């Protein structure tokens, strides 16, 4: 049998592509090949003794439309918003916790008054922030790192104390390499348009008020029963036989009889020797895995794909009694600036953020280590990681005793890094892949790492393949 579309990879991108194919071309045949024993990729949930533990992402934003659209189109409405109480996070300054200033959103000082009275910054840091209005605008549209942009516009202290932990943590990235054009292009655009981020905030005062008030938390939702439940729902919307798990692709090749006569254009070989034929081929695997598959076909494309670096991350998940903590846990978590030289990147108060994540009287926390800035921590053993998590929680949160249980979740080489020049690289990848008819590449490595972006990526390439 020859399929009209074969998708390699059953993560959220591949599932979104398959669902799009089903809705836009219901009469055509398709197959999704997933190498592991389950779909969803990094999106997975552990259910343990009354705890609901997300192994990777624990929410998505509805401010970007694509995830919400997929939920609506597939009839998935079992979503909950963040808890209405304690809608704030903490940063570490000199070993102590201080709330993230309400008047700051990503890179924009939206309410200067709140920023100037916040204890996070020194007098010198606040003066330098005020001076941002007088910093000459950079009109050059070439790429720049997050560290360079933030320090140039806002000063070193705002960068080290606010920008690096808040934004670098989102991408698990090294901010000295993170591309502004690939991740936060709106801010260089504001600089060119208004000459200043402060002036840009003043021009958009209504939106600034919403950002400063914490209303942005209203945009974050999560599946009530966890992302595994959401993934299972998406899989159930595809006809039986559409997905094959445990199917690892060994090689791809063009068919000699490719053409418009109805014959297959692509041959997909599985480990074990089985061959599958397809008229169209979509690869949603990580960029480094995609590079290996396409190398015999196109070395230049493979080199560009292999040029996208990846980082790993480790999550120490702990369940504790609520009375083990002196800190009231009256927020959603802690972010650690690199300048503090902590052994963690962040701590998420998962059961404070969303309901139903821990039994009554107990709390669920996720401690993040490693990433692109502390890769050596990813190589530590489980016992060392558990000790680090406990010592950091004892110091920062006043935890006493040992956790009820601990679980280590390792994501080695799973986080694509959008380094300076990434936008140009993605354009080259698009141009090179377009040389191959009925072929496309999609996923988190190209135009957005969050769940909504991955969904958009899968849907968009199917639309392009069909037309």
By CATH, the architecture of the largest domain is named 3-Layer(bba) Sandwich
- Under CATH, the homologous superfamily of the largest domain reads FAD/NAD(P)-binding domain
Reported by name, the CATH topology of the largest domain is FAD/NAD(P)-binding domain
Largest pleated sheet: 7 strands, mixed
Judging from the principal axes of the Cα atoms, what is the shape?
A: globular
Number of domains: 3
- Average pLDDT number: 93
Output the radius of gyration: 23 Å
Structural class: alpha/beta
How far the N terminus sits from the C terminus, by CA atoms, comes to 23 Å
Strand residue percentage = 15-25%
The helicity comes to 25-40%
Strands, count: 23
CATH C-level of the largest domain: Alpha Beta
Strands of the widest sheet, in order across it, are 9-8-19-20-21-18-22
Low-confidence stretches: 208-215
Number of helices: 17
Compile the SSE list and pairings.
Blueprint lengths: L1 E2 L1 E4 L3 H13 L5 E5 L10 E4 L2 E4 L5 E2 L3 H10 L4 E3 L8 E4 L2 E4 L4 E2 L2 E2 L2 H6 L5 H8 L15 H9 L1 H16 L8 H4 L2 H9 L2 H7 L1 H9 L6 E4 L3 H10 L6 E3 L3 E6 L11 E5 L4 E4 L2 E3 L3 H8 L4 H8 L3 E12 L11 E3 L10 E3 L1 H4 L8 E9 L11 H16 L7 E12 L5 H12 L5 E3 L9 H16 L1
Helix pairs in contact: 1-17, 2-17, 5-6, 12-13, 13-16
């Amino acid at each position: 049998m020859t399929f009209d579309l074969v998708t390699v990879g059953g993560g959220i991108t591949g599932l979104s592509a398959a669902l799009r194919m089903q809705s836009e071309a219901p009469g055509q045949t398709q197959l999704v090949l997933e190498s592991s024993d389950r779909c969803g990729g990094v999106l997975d949930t552990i259910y343990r003794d009354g705890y609901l533990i997300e192994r990777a992402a624990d929410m998505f934003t509805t401010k970007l439309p694509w995830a919400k659209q997929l939920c609506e189109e597939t009839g998935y409405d079992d979503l909950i918003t963040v808890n209405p109480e304690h809608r704030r996070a903490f940063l570490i300054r000199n070993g102590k916790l201080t709330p993230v200033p309400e008047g700051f959103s990503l890179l924009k000082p939206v309410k200067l008054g709140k920023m100037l009275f916040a204890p996070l910054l020194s007098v010198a840091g606040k003066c330098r922030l005020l001076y941002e209005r007088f910093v000459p605008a950079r009109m050059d549209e070439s790429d720049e790192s997050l560290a360079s942009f933030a320090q140039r516009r806002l000063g070193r202290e705002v960068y080290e104390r606010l920008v690096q932990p808040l934004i670098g943590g989102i991408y698990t990235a090294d901010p000295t390499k993170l591309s502004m054009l690939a991740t936060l292009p709106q801010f260089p655009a504001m600089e060119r348009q208004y000459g200043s981020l402060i002036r840009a905030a003043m021009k958009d005062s209504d939106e600034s008020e919403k950002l400063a008030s914490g209303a942005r938390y209203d945009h974050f939702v999560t599946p009530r029963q966890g992302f595994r439940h959401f993934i299972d729902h998406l899989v159930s919307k595809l006809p039986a036989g559409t997905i094959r798990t445990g199917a690892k692709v060994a090689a791809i090749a063009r068919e000699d009889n490719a053409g418009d006569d109805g014959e297959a254009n692509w041959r997909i070989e599985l480990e074990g020797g089985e061959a599958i034929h397809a008229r169209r081929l979509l690869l949603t695997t990580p960029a480094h895995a995609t590079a290996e598959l396409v190398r015999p076909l196109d070395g230049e494309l493979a080199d560009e794909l292999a040029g996208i670096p990846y980082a790993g991350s480790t999550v120490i998940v702990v369940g504790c009694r609520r009375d083990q903590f002196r800190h009231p846990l009256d927020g959603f978590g802690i972010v650690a600036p690199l300048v503090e030289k902590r052994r963690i990147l962040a701590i998420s108060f998962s059961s404070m953020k969303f309901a139903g994540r821990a039994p009554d009287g107990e709390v669920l926390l996720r401690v993040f280590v490693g990433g692109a800035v502390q890769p050596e921590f990813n190589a530590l053993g489980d016992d060392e990681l558990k000790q680090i998590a406990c010592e950091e929680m004892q110091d920062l949160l006043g935890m006493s005793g040992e956790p009820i249980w601990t679980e280590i979740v390792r994501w080695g080489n799973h986080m694509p890094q959008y380094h300076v020049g990434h936008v140009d690289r993605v354009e080259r990848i698009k141009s090179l892949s377009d040389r191959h008819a009925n072929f496309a590449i999609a996923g988190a490595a190209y135009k957005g790492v969050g769940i909504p972006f991955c969904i958009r990526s899968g849907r968009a390439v199917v639309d392009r393949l069909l037309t």
